[in-house]
Structures are given as C-alpha cells and as structure tokens.
Give the backbone structure.
Amino acid sequence: MGDLGTVRNSYSTASASSDNNVGGLVGANAGPVSNSYSTGSVTGDYVIGGLVGQSWGTVSNSLWDVETSEQDSSAGGTGRTTVEMRNVDTFSDARWNIIAVAGPSMRNTGYIWNIVDGETYPFLSWQSVL
C-alpha cells in the first residue's frame, strides 16, 4: 500500500514519468487528497492516472487537465478540458474556496484560491506573481 499522506489545497504543473504508479499529482497514496489539481504531462507503463496513479484513500474535489496530461483516467478526481480548468465555475462547482481576480498579479487573500477567469489555472492567493 502507498504512504498515508494528506494532500490538500495543492497543485502540480510539472510533467511526471515513471514505469508504474505515476500520476500528475500523486503516484500512490493511501491518504486523502482534496481541493487539488494537476496540469502536467503524465507518462508511464503501468498504473497511470491524470491526477492519481493509485489510491487507497479518498480523492475529493480534485481535478486534472485531460488535454495537457494526455490522460483520460485517474484513480481519483475529475478530468476536465483546459478551457474548463481555466474557468472559475469549474472550481466553485467543486466547492473550492476560490474567487476570480482581474489579473495574475492581483490577489484576494480572503480566499485560498484565486483565478483569472478564462486565462489562468487557479493559484494560491498567497503565491508570488506567476
């Protein structure tokens, strides 16, 4: 079984590649994954997922970009298109603490996540300029 780790309010834009147990955010995990996403390319030979390769835990309110990952399945989470991943409604509907801001250098720290609707993927409100 994978490690028991909690993944919450996180994301990955990196590419992931391995022989097995590879995911855009988590390769193998037995703990909860929530309010997270991934957008990078995911490649491997065995047990591959757009967001999670293999999971024995719960995956909730988490998404991956099916176009950029080139993966249409995952051991948890919901696959969305790039257009959907850049839409505030996609994440609001998934019950994220998110709000749209006017530009990537703008921040509303009253929310965990910010997004420039139609332009960027979500980013953490405390993050420096993208």
Summary: The chain has a mean pLDDT of 95. The chain has two domains: 7-80, 86-124. Residues 86-124 form one domain.
